[in-house]
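S., here's the first fold you wanted:
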Amino acid sequence: MTNKKVIPNKISELQQERLKFKPILPNVLKNHPSTIVAKLISATRSVSAQETIKKLFPKTYGMPEVIFSKGKNSQIKKKVVKVGVVLSGGQAPGGHNVIAGLFDGLKKTNSKNKLVGFLGGPSGILENKFKELTKPLIDQYRNTGGFDMIQSGRTKIETPEQFQKTKDVLIQNKIDALVIIGGDDSNTNAALIAEYFKQENVNINVVGVPKTIDGDLKNDKIETSFGFDTATKIYAELVGNICRDVNSARKYWHFIRLMGRSASHITLEVGLKTQPNIILIGEEVKQKNMTLAQIVDYIVDIIVKRAEMKKNFGVVLVPEGLIEFIPEMKNLISALNDILADNEITINSLTNIEEKRNFVYSKLTVELANLMKSLPDNIETQLMLDRDPHGNVQVSLIETEKLLIDMIKPKLSEMKKNGTYNGKFSAITHFFGYEGRCGAPSNFDANYTYALGFNAALLVLNNLTGYLSSVRKLVQKPQNWVCGGIPLTMMMNIERRKGKEKPVIQKALVNLDAKPFKYLKQNRETWALNENYLFPGPIQYFGPENLTFMTTKTLKLEQSNK
C-alpha cells in the first residue's frame, strides 16, 4: 500500500495544463482597487433615435464613458458587497474566466465580498435558484470552455411581473449588484433592468459583459465580443483542414455554412484566415440587392472558370444568415408569414402539398410566385410547413449550402448540354456552429475575459450601474489594454420586434467600407482561381508569443495604422 495521492482521471491532460495558466491583467487592474479611480469622460448618446431612447431611459441615458486610472479610492475597500452573476444566451469560450475575474476582483478588494451564480440563465433569477461561487469551485473552471459552472438560458426579463420578481428576489437575497454576461439581447435586458431599478429607487447596480461568438456586439469602445477569437480559430482549423484535403484529392467542391445568422463576421474572419475560393458576405449581397439567381450565377462562373483550368474542386464559405440578406428572399419570407397566418384554416384543409403550393402562389405577387417556383422542391416544402411557435417560417432551418448546390447542379447540366461547360461537379456540405461555442478559450480570450470580469467588479464597486464592461486597445499586449465602461444606452436604437417598436442594442454588421472587407475584396479574384489556401491549424496555447497570443485578422486590419 502507498500513501501517494491518486488524482482522479476526470480531466484531460490539456485541461490540467490550462488550469495552471495565469491570465495577464492590464497594468491598471494590477493595482489594489483602492488605488484605481473611475475617470468620467464625455457624456454619451445612443446610436440613433436619441430623443425616443432618452424618454425610455430617463435615469440612465447620457451617462459618461468611464476609464479606469491610477488614483486614491479609499472608500471602495470598506464596502462589503454580495454580487449575483448570470450567463445569458448561447455559450461562448471564456465565460468561466469572466466569472473568475469578477470573483478575484471582488475578493482582492475585500475578502468578505461574496459572489453568487444564478443557475440556468435569467430564469434562475426569476426562480430564485443560485449557489455561492467559492474559490475551490471557481478554480476547477479557470481557462475552460463552456458555461457549465452555472449553465445558461435564453429567458428574457421583459414583463412588469418579471421586473418585479427580479427586484424581489435580489432584495430578498441581499444582492447589491447583478452582472449579466450576454449578447445584444441580454445586454438590452441589462439596460432595462438598470433603468427599472433606478426608477424604483432600488440601490442595486447592473453591469453587462459583451459576449457572442457571432462578433456582432461591437463598436469603437467594444472592439470585439468575447469568444469570437476562439470560435473563429476553431472553425478556421476545420476549414483549413478541408482546404488541404480538397487540394490533395482535387475532386470535390465543399460548401461550408458557418454560424452567424444576423451578421457575417465569422465567415469574413474565417475566410481571411484560410483564403478559400469563394466567400459570400451577406451584407454585400444586401447592399448590391443581389437575387438568389445572381448569387448562383456568381458561384457557377467560378466553377466553370476553374473547370477550364482542370480544377474541378474548391471551397465555398456561406454565412448562416445569407437567405435573410437576399432582399427578394426576405420579401418572400415576409409575404409567406402573412399568407400562412391569415389563411391557416384554408391551407390546413387542402389535402396535399401541391394544392397548398398552388394556393400560396395565387396569394403572392407574380415576381414572388416565380421566385418560389424556382426553388428546389424540398426548400419550397420547408417554407410551407416548417414554422416556429409564432407562425413564422423557420429560416434558421434552411440548409443554405444545400439550396445553393441544388440550384447550381441543373444550371451546370444545362451548360454541359450546350457545350459551355465540360467539367465535373461533386459537392460535399458542412455546417460548423456548435463546434465553436464551448472550445477551450485561446490565450487571447482567456486574458480578455478575465480582464472583462475583473473590470466588471470595479464597475460594480464604483456604483456604475447601466454600464457595459469595456476593455480595448486589444491588438496591443494585455498589459497595455485600456479598461473602463460605456453606458448600455449608448449602443441603443429602435427596432420593430413582434409588431412593436422596442429599444435594443444595435447589432454590428460587417462594415463594407472597413479594412477587413476591403482586404477580401482586393484578393478574392486571385483566391477564386488559385489555391492560395492557408492552413491555420489548431489553437496554440504554448510556444512563441506570435502564435499563442495572436488575435483575429479582423482586429489587426481594423486597428492597423491607428
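And the second, which I think is the more interesting of the pair:
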Amino acid sequence: MTRGWWLAAGAAAAAMLAGSQAIGSGDPGPLIDYVTSHALHPIDRAALAAGRVGIVKPRAPEAVRYLDWRLLNGLDAGAAVTEQLATPCCGDWQDLTGVWTEARRAVPGVSDVYWISTERRGPDYTAIPTCFGDAFTTAAATLKARIAAHGTSSTWVRAWVDGQDAVFEACSKPGVVLPALDPAAPAWLRADRLYQQAALALYDGRLADAERTFAAIGRDASSPWQKLAPYLQARTIQRAALTTRDPAAFARAHGAIATLAAAPEGTYGKSEVGRMQQVLDYSEHPAALRDRLDQALNAKAAAPDIAVKFKDYWSLSADRLDKPEAADWIATLGSRNRAEGLAHADERWQATRRNAWLIAALSLAAREDAAATRLAEAAEHVPATDPAWLTARYHLLRLNVGRAPDAALRGQVDAILARDDLTPSDRNIFLAVRAQLATSLADFAAHALRQPYCTPGVATCLDFDAGIALTQLGHRGRDWAGFGDDARMLIDRLPLADRLALGRMDMLPPELRLDLALTNFTRAVLLRNDTAVDETARALVTLLPQVRGDWQRILRTAPGPDKRFATLFVMAKIPSLRTDLEGYARPYGTERSFGGYWSDWLVRVPRAMPAPAFRPAWLYVPASWQNRSAGEEPPPADIACDGKCGSPFPARIAPFAGPLQPAALRERSAFRTAADLPKGIAGGTTLWEEALAYVAAHPRDPRAGEALYRLNRVGRWGGNHNQLSRRAFRLLHARYPGTIWAKRSPFYYD
C-alpha cells in the first residue's frame, strides 16, 4: 500500500522538529562564524577600545567602519566610544518592549502579551517608528512603584495596567481609546490616567490634544508627572513641526526647545536639547548640519553622543556624490563596484597619502589590477606601529601568495601568529593563510583549527542558534574549536590514506576525529578497502559508541560478503554519512535520534556517467551561497576571510597536498550517487540494492528484518532508486510479517 503526499510532508515536519530538539542529530547544521565583521564580542570591543584596528572589514556596519576611520587617523576612541559605535543602533526594540511585557506579568489575571508592535504603516509599504524604548522602561518602572505602594492584587493597579496596554496598542493601531475609569478611582490613578491619555494622543497623531494635556499636567503641582511635562510638551511641539513641515510650526518648536534650554539645571529632558535641535536641523538645514557633524566627528576628542551624531551624518551623506571625506572612505571601502571603488581609493591615497585610503585601495585590489603591485609595495612600508599595519600585512599576503616564495610567506605569517594581541577573528584569518602554506600533513593539522565566536554563554552568534552550532565543533581544553572552511576543503581533497593519518592525530578534538572517522569509513566502504574499514571501525567503537555493537561486528567479521553487509547495516542507521565534510553532519544523541538524509551511492554506474570532480571551493564558504538567485554564478571563494575583508583571498591547495590531488581525484570515481546521474541516463546499482540483495539471499540472518525496515526508511529519505522502499517493504511483510520491524513499517513510499 502507499500513503499520500500529506503524510510524507507531516513526517518531514516531524523529523525537522525532532532534529531541532536533539541538537544536530545528523541534520545539516548551521554556519559557524569564525570571521566576524561586527564588533559584538567583548574581545573585539576591547581591542578597538585599546586602539588595535585589526584587519579592517569592508563588510562591517557603517558605524564600525567609522570607528576604524577614527583609529586609522589617530583620533581618540576608547571604551565608551567603542561601545556606542559597535552597538547596533536599530532592531533592539524587542528587548526593550520585553521589559514591560515581563513587568506586567506580576499582576494577577492579566493576559500574557509576548510581542508589541512599535510601528505604524506608512506609505509605499514603509513602517514609521512610533514608540521607543524609554516608554517601555518608564512604564515598567512605574508599574513596579505602583505595586510596591498598593499591592499586586489591587483593583486600581489592574486598571492602571489596562490603561497602559491601551497606550501601547496605539503604537501600531489608530483609533485606540482608553478604558473607562471608575469615578471612585484614587487620585494617583486619575493623575496617571491623564498622563496615559496624553501619551496615547501623541502616539495616535493627535498632537494638539497631546500638547494641551501635557501642558495641563505641567500646571498640576500634585501630579507625579509634572516634572516630565515641559519636556514632553516640547517633544510634542517638535513632532508637530516634523509632521507638518510648516515654517510656523518649526518656529514654535525652536521656541519650545529654547524654553527647555533656559530651564534650571536638573530639569528633566534638558540634556536632550542638543539632540532635539539637531532633529530640527536635519529637516530644515541638512547640508549645514552635515558639515557641522563632519567637523565634530573628525575632531580628535570624541563627542559624548558620537553614535547619534554619526547616525545623522551617515544618513545625510550616504546617497550624496559630494560626500565628506570620512563618509567617502566608508562608502568607498564598501563599494559594490570594485573597479570604480579601487580607482577612487587609489586616487585618494595618492592625493592624501593617508594610510586609511591605502587600506581601502588594498581591500579592493585584485592581483590582476594594474595598481596591485604599486599598492603592495606601499603596504610593505607601513610601519608596525601604524594602526593600518595588520590590514596591510593581510592584503600583502593575499596579493603575494603563489607569487613570492612560500618559505618567506610562512615566516611572515608565523611572526604574526606569535603575537598575543590578535582577536579570534584575525587569528582565524591568518591561520587560514598559514594552512594554505603548509609543508606537511602535520604542519597543516597544526593550523587547521579555528576558535568560533558562537559558543555557550556568549550571545554574539549571528543568524543561528549557538547550541546547534556545537554539532560542528569540538572540545579543545575548556574552549571550542572547529575546522576552518579552508581546512575542510583541503581535507576533502586528500586521499583516504592521508585522511586516515590526520584522524590519528591526538591534537584534534575527539569530536572532529569522529567526523573524520565517519567520512573516512564511508570512503573506505565505497572503495572496498577492508583495512581502512577496520581502522575506522576500531576508532568508532570509542568515538560513536551508540552503535558500538555494529563496529565490533565489522571488526570480527572476515573480509567477504558478510563483512560487506555488516558495513552497510550500520550505514543504514546513520543517515548523515557522507564522503566529504562538506554536506556531512555529525550524528548526535541516541541511535534512534540520528537525523538527516541518506545518500544514494552508486556502486556500479552507467558508462556514460562522467567521473566526479572535487566539491567546488565556494561550497565551503558560508557567505558564498547566501542571498544568491537560482542559476546565478557563485562569487569567487574566499576561504580565508569569508568575503568580509574585501577582494577574496584565492583558494589554494597547500604545497604538500598538490602532489596528492591526482590520487584523490581517482578515488572520487567511487563516490558517485544516483543524484549525480545526468538527465537522460538511467541504470546503475546502489549500495542499498547491494544490501537488499544480501538480505534476499540470507533469509535466516537475524538482522534481515531490521535491515529491510531500515532500507524502507532509506528509500523514503534517500532517493528511492529503483523503488527501493517498495521492494524492501514487500520482502519484509512477506518473510517477517509478525516482527516488530514489520509493525514499524506500515507503508512504503513511491
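Why I say that: The CA atoms of residues 75 and 577 lie 53 Å apart. The beta strands are 119-121, 127-129, 449-450, 474-476, 479-483, 602-604, 685-686.

Talk tomorrow,
H.
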